[in-house]
Design goal:
heterotrimer, A mainly alpha (676), B alpha/beta (355), C alpha/beta (311), A: 676 residues, mainly alpha, MetI-like fold, B: 355 residues, alpha/beta, Rossmann fold, CBS domain Like, six-stranded mixed sheet, four-stranded antiparallel sheet, 40% helix, ATP binding (chain B), ATP-binding (chain B), ABC_transporter-like_CS (chain B), ATP-binding cassette domain-containing protein (chain B)
């Protein structure tokens, strides 16, 4: 066997490793190499406030106008929904479901809405629906217009794509303050946040839809003598309609996920408000019930919009639907004014869940305490304070003597060299791992972080990405948020590792077993649509306030993408190659590790990307259980009404998200769609 | 196979279409003066793709003008230049007394609405419209009232024998049926100039012939001026009054099928046509000459029929055949035999090459 | 609309200028316009709001309840989107409230009359394992501190502090008294309640910052730690019971003069609020029913406020 060729980039990374080792060693002597030097911290948020606050206050008249524009239809829809007696409203929705998706969907609609009524959440659910019915058309309209303009002017597309990524990754809590200044107190600020977050999928789908209109359709319309307007509205838009409806569907889902954000501001007495109040009172039953309402509305809207996106025969004709809706209106007129809502029974029943939870907590506390301690000592502390911090009598029961330090250095150097002899790449990775394990992620010397991230982004993404990454790091350092940023990265890194271990395994099993897959699917759907606040309560009771509970909350949400993408990748592995593997006599394990997983590589990488995005998006919510990272900074800024600080913390989270996205994306394909 | 009049419908001179970063740079308004080959070579060398190189031809009223070539030869680009789906860099396209290359957008829309029709390889049907609505679509764009345009669309669909599938969506139709809808649509405004861009290529080979027959039947009825694009030499020979053979953006030979088959200008064309069974592709009228002396005996043979129809009689010893029509034409056995000998040589060479 | 407000406000002012009697009946003002009362997240504030609203209705006003987040709602008050908020804990107002108060956009109507408490609490069962409780000295006992220790805080005991965004003095007080405790921010009120409930259920030791009145205190039996003597009496080093005040939009007095008087007089006792919280949060009765019952039964309390304002 010959030693593998040492390539240029091996030398680059080898050099980086050597430099990093040097930095770590020096950091023992010069603490200013460890954390970002406080002397360099600038009062960025004050400067930003001085610029942002007057600007938004100056724009206030415009905000008030928009506010009025948004709140007029909102009030109308809200009072219409509040007026309609629930039997009539359910009848109408069931008919629409029947038209869109057939009998099964109609049955589901009836059951779901019946549950909402029984739990006593009907009026709040209708208020939520009113919010969605205003924010979705607004987001769809804006998204379609932006998408169409971007299609017309292709030069604007790269900038637009970046803007969309920013809109989707910037935590909404981070810009609530400026929105409040602009729009004043009321649902409009929340609606605006919701629209900002839910516009991007519509833009993307519009762009894809218009781009993928077959050229023959465009040409045939042109040859039929279509004017530009006719070409667009009568040929391109109808042809792109299925894709546009996918956009409407995704926008609706995104909009529903923002219901909670609207409730943070308040003013609407909706389901999001109920979730928040229940969370505040730490009542699992109520928050579970309210969360379930959101899930049911989400699933219902999802299936109905998807049903409309489908082309083909319908169970009933449009005119029958219309007749049915008229009937529902008649029912509404007959029943209106009567108090038909059930009493407090449902709410009381929900409260019982809290009793069960407390019984469970009392019964299982010792077990969960052990679990918590094991993961805290074994995984979280080493990643946070590193071997050098963990090796203390308090944590691991032994002190960090010079002998132990020397042994650590020798062993890790030996492992790195051994691995490096066979493959330089593995040696370098092992070296970095040993170094990180020594310092802990947040304790890695800051010039080293700049160096490593700089080289990685430069090589993978060129100047643009490099500038973004360096800008983000500099922003974190200069605004005094270096430690919270590193804490965020650390928390997300641990969460992503755990998600991939658990989600990957579940995805593998789901790919092999249809029954398990069918069992897992509704759970995944629920984990992704249920407001995360709901999971915080049991997690808090079992694991107490702190990073570990934050980790659990993040994992619960971010575990879904690896499940989906791993299953998707494995199931769609090319059949001929799999058959070839079988023919060569591969065992099940060999099949998995040596054939299917490598084939599913791009899907798995995309799943990793999505997992990171999901984990980052949970940071702000995880802050509610007491963390020290950027999400917490966002909250602190929110409570101080410090627009600048909120914007800065949000911007850093966005930078982290964009950089990790671009780093991974350059490896996996960009245009893959989410598996259903 | 309609008889073309001598009136010229579309006259193209020195058409150039170039793809690349700045094609206009190479053509100033005064016109280029250098050799087309040299210019094309320079364009290729400087990162451009000359897709149509100095194409000149006339299309006569009522004729089927086939542009034929392999993929990448520029034939699809050329037809898109003729319909102004692409703008040309240089040249003139005279149609109906106007230079198509220079008319305004408004006039172009008007011409497309009333005087041009086009059929596409991948049909280009609107997926959300029924067959009837698709055919009525061009009329709808013109603002024709619903009842009127649907009556016309129904008529067109009956013409292509789809009168029973008016309400079907494109996804519910077979490929052949979809293309019939495409044909009906392109004919709905009753255009003078009809472009067909590889209309049958996406279809199952088994129904090619059926669709070709259908097309010929339609043309006999409608007598349109047709520009037909194909990569299939057999199809070209069956349908064409004249063929323009393209290679690398240039028209390398222009003539009747018989001229191309019997007198290829170079080895490329010869190779290209080698596979064609001449006895089927050459038609009686291609070899016919004015009758000399006594009119031949026996039943007349159709002028448009392939010469293979005379083979049984030829074998039986007949030497002269009367050609249908009042032109006083005859077909002489020697001419037929000469063609059959070429056929035999081709077959031998093809076998030799494959051995 | 706006014109009408202005006319009403102007006439109210004009009237005030004309009559100069020391005790005077206030004008109703824009009684047709609903008075928007903030419904904040916690039950206590919702009770206070509902009762205030129902008393205003008895006086002939229309009341509307607007759910609102604690921090954002100050913006609403400043803009007049929310007319009044009757239970504002002045220890938890963030940085918006002082700003809008200083700018004269809101007006403080004085105390609601709740007797509040704030301090360090522990679940009552802990007195068995740390016998020195409720004295703060118990928190110096290594055995007791060891029970409170967690991996995050070793070797110190864990002290559950207010969420980071509330601002807390616990860390200062711990340092002042050299206590072997580490303050861990709790993130949210829900997190604090979850911990307290779980601690009670699983009998795990816990010491945390808390306040009263709060419905959880009816559910979980807690003890209040007797705090050490403050290093000085500043807010940084000393816990003092917070004031709970009523705050209205600055235009309130002009628009609804009589309502302004009523709210100024409005008081609610801790005991009453505590009882209603229990009925709502523990017995599952509706907010509306409970507060209506209070208003019906306590006319003796609120009637004088209404009469004073109207007659």
């Amino acid at each position: 066997m010959t030693a593998p060729r040492v390539r240029a980039w091996h030398r680059v990374w080898g050099g980086m490793l050597a430099l990093s080792v040097l930095l770590v060693a020096l950091a023992q002597q010069f603490p200013q190499l460890g954390g970002f030097p406080t002397g360099l911290v600038l009062n960025l948020s004050d400067w930003l406030n001085a610029a942002v606050t007057p600007a938004f206050e100056a724009a206030r008249p415009l905000g008030v106008l928009l506010s009025a524009l948004a709140e007029t239809p909102l009030a109308a829809i809200r009072s219409a929904l509040a007026w309609a007696p629930w039997p009539a409203a359910i009848l109408a929705v069931v008919l629409i479901a029947l038209y869109s998706g057939g009998w099964r969907l109609a049955l589901f609609a009836a059951a779901a809405l019946g549950t909402v009524v029984a739990m006593g959440y009907w009026p709040k659910a209708m208020n939520t629906l009113a919010l969605v019915l205003v924010s979705v058309p607004a987001a769809v309209g804006i998204g379609f217009a932006l998408g169409a303009l971007a299609y017309r002017f292709p030069r604007t597309q790269p900038a637009l794509i970046v803007m969309l990524d920013v809109m989707q990754t910037w935590p909404a809590f981070g810009y609530l303050i400026p929105l409040l200044i602009l729009f004043g107190f009321g649902p409009t600020a929340g609606l605006a946040a919701s629209v900002i977050f839910s516009v991007p999928p519509m833009v993307r789908n519009t762009l894809v839809g218009l781009r993928e209109v077959p050229p023959a359709i465009v040409e045939s319309a042109l040859m039929a003598g279509a004017r530009p307007g006719q070409l667009f509205w009568q040929a391109m838009v109808p042809s792109a309609l299925p894709q546009l409806l996918v956009g409407v569907n995704q926008t609706t889902m995104a909009s529903l996920s923002m219901v909670i954000i609207i409730a943070i501001i308040g003013g609407f007495n909706d389901i999001g408000w109920e979730v928040l109040s229940a969370m505040r009172a730490a009542e699992l039953g109520r928050s579970l019930g309210a969360g379930l309402v959101i899930v049911l509305i989400a699933v219902l809207l999802d299936r109905i919009t998807r049903g409309f996106a489908r082309r083909g025969p319908r169970v009933m004709q449009a005119r029958w639907l219309l007749a049915g809706l008229v009937l529902a209106l008649v029912v509404a007129l007959v029943l209106s004014g009567q108090d038909l809502l059930p009493g407090e029974q449902g709410q009381r029943w929900l409260r019982r869940i809290d009793g069960w939870l407390l019984d469970f907590v009392a019964w299982s506390a010792p077990f969960f305490a052990v679990l918590r301690n094991a993961i805290t000592y074994g995984v979280m502390l080493p990643m946070r304070i590193g071997f050098s911090g963990s090796a203390s009598p308090m944590v691991w029961g032994f002190a960090l003597t010079p002998e132990i330090t020397a042994a650590y250095v020798l062993v890790s150097a030996a492992i790195a060299l051994l691995l490096g002899w066979r493959s330089p790449q593995r040696g370098i990775i092992a070296g970095f791992a040993a170094l990180l394990f020594w310092t802990g992620l947040p304790g890695f010397p800051w010039p080293g972080v700049f160096l490593v991230v700089g080289v990685a982004t430069w090589r993978k993404g060129g100047t643009g990405l490099f500038a973004l990454a360096m800008g983000g790091l500099a922003l974190a350092g200069l605004s005094g948020l270096w430690v919270p940023m590193m804490q965020s990265v650390y928390l997300c890194a641990v969460a992503v590792l755990i998600c991939f271990a658990i989600g990957g395994a579940l995805g593998v099993i789901a790919a092999e077993s249809d029954r398990f897959s069918a069992f897992l699917r509704p759970i995944s759907d629920t984990l992704q649509t249920m407001p995360q606040f709901v999971f915080l309560i049991p997690a808090l009771m079992l694991f107490k306030v702190g990073e570990f509970t934050a980790l659990i909350a993040i994992v619960l949400y971010a575990v879904v993408p690896p499940i989906r993408y791993v299953e998707h990748g494995l199931r769609n592995a090319r059949a001929d190659l799999v058959e070839a593997g079988v023919q060569m006599g591969a065992t099940t394990w060999q099949m998995l590790w040596q054939v299917k997983l490598p084939l599913a590589r791009s899907s798995v990488l995309l799943g990793l990307n999505q997992t990171i995005m999901a984990a980052l998006s949970m940071l702000v919510i995880a802050a509610l259980v007491g963390t020290r990272e950027l999400g917490q900074q966002v909250y602190v800024a929110l409570s101080r009404a410090d627009a600048g600080a909120g914007l800065i913390s949000g911007a850093i989270i966005t930078c982290v998200a964009l950089v990790s996205d671009r780093l991974l994306r350059s490896r996996s394909s960009i245009h893959r769609k989410v598996p259903e | 196979m309609a008889q073309a009049s001598s009136r010229i419908m579309l006259s193209c001179k020195h058409l150039w279409k170039v793809f690349g970063p700045r094609p206009a740079y190479y053509f100033d308004t005064a016109g280029y003066r250098i050799d087309p080959e040299a210019l094309a070579a320079r364009l290729r060398g400087e990162g451009h793709i000359p897709a149509v190189v100095d194409a000149s031809f006339d299309v006569k009223q009522g004729e089927i003008f086939v542009i034929m070539g392999l993929s990448g030869s520029g034939k699809s680009t050329l037809v898109r230049c003729l319909s102004r789906l692409l703008d040309i860099e240089y040249g003139t396209m005279e149609f109906d007394g106007q230079d198509l290359a220079r008319i305004s957008g408004r006039d172009l829309i008007e011409i497309r609405r009333r005087k041009m029709g086009m059929v596409f390889q991948s049909f280009g049907l609107m997926p959300h419209l029924t067959a009837l609505e698709n055919v009525a679509f061009p009329l709808k764009l013109q603002g024709v009232a619903r009842s009127e345009r649907e009556a016309r669309a129904r008529e067109m669909l009956e013409l292509v024998e789809l009168g029973s599938r008016l309400d079907a969506l494109p996804s519910q139709l077979s490929g052949g049926q979809q293309q019939r809808v495409g044909i009906a649509r392109s004919l709905a405004p009753d255009p003078d100039l009809w472009f067909l861009d590889e209309p049958f290529s996406a279809l199952d080979p088994l129904i090619h012939r059926q669709m070709q027959d259908e097309f010929l039947r339609l043309q006999n009825q409608l007598k349109k001026t047709i520009v037909f694009i194909t990569h299939d030499i057999m199809e070209a020979c069956r349908l064409a009054d004249r063929i323009a053979l393209m290679r690398g953006g240039r028209i390398i030979q222009l003539g009747t099928p018989a001229e191309i088959l019997l007198s290829p200008v170079d080895d490329y064309v010869a190779d290209f046509t080698a596979e064609v069974a001449l006895s089927r592709a050459i038609r009686v009228r291609d070899l016919a000459r004015p009758a000399q002396g006594e009119p031949p005996e026996g039943p007349p043979v159709p002028a448009a029929a392939p010469i293979e129809v005379v083979l049984p009689a030829l074998a039986a010893g007949q030497r002269r055949f009367r050609v249908e029509g009042d032109g006083g034409l005859e077909l002489e056995a020697g001419a037929v035999l000469e063609v059959l000998q070429r056929d035999a040589r081709h077959g031998f060479r093809a076998d030799g090459a494959s051995a | 609309m706006l014109k009408k407000y202005v006319t009403v406000a102007v006439s109210a002012l004009a009237l005030a200028g004309l009559t100069s009697a020391p005790v005077m009946a206030a004008e109703m003002g824009a009684a047709g316009e609903p008075i928007k009362l903030a419904m904040l997240e916690w039950t206590g504030a919702q009770i206070s709001s509902q009762i205030a609203g129902k008393i205003l209705e008895k006086a002939g006003y229309k009341a509307e309840y607007v759910t609102a987040g604690n921090y954002p709602h100050f913006q609403g008050l400043a803009d007049g989107e929310i007319s009044a908020s009757v239970e504002i804990w002045l220890n938890n107002v963030g940085e918006v409230y002082p700003k809008v108060l200083a700018a004269g956009k809101v007006e403080d109507l004085g105390t609601l009359g709740l007797k509040t408490n704030e301090g360090w609490i522990y679940p009552k069962f802990m007195e068995e394992i740390c016998p020195a409780l409720p004295s703060w000295e118990a928190l110096k006992d290594p055995a007791c501190v060891g029970l409170l220790a967690t991996p995050d805080t070793l070797p110190n005991g864990r002290f559950l502090d207010y969420p980071a965004d509330w601002g807390s003095r616990a860390a200062t007080i711990i340092a002042d008294n050299n206590l072997p405790l580490t303050a861990v921010p709790s993130g949210s009120e829900g997190a604090m309640l979850s911990e307290l409930r779980a601690a009670e259920a699983a009998r795990t030791p816990l010491v945390m910052m808390f306040w009263a009145p709060h419905f959880i205190l009816a559910e979980v039996e807690v003890g209040w730690i007797e705090m050490p003597v403050c290093v000085d009496q500043s807010n940084e080093h000393c816990i003092m019971p917070p004031d709970v005040n009523k705050v209205v939009w600055s235009g309130f007095a002009g628009k609804w003069p009589a309502a302004y008087q009523i709210l100024k007089d409005f008081r609610l006792s801790t005991e009453d609020q505590q009882k209603m919280m229990l009925a709502i949060d523990e017995k599952g009765q509706s907010l509306d029913a409970v507060t209506t019952a209070w208003v019906d039964e306590n006319e003796a309390i609120w009637r004088p406020w209404v009469d004073a304002a109207l007659n």
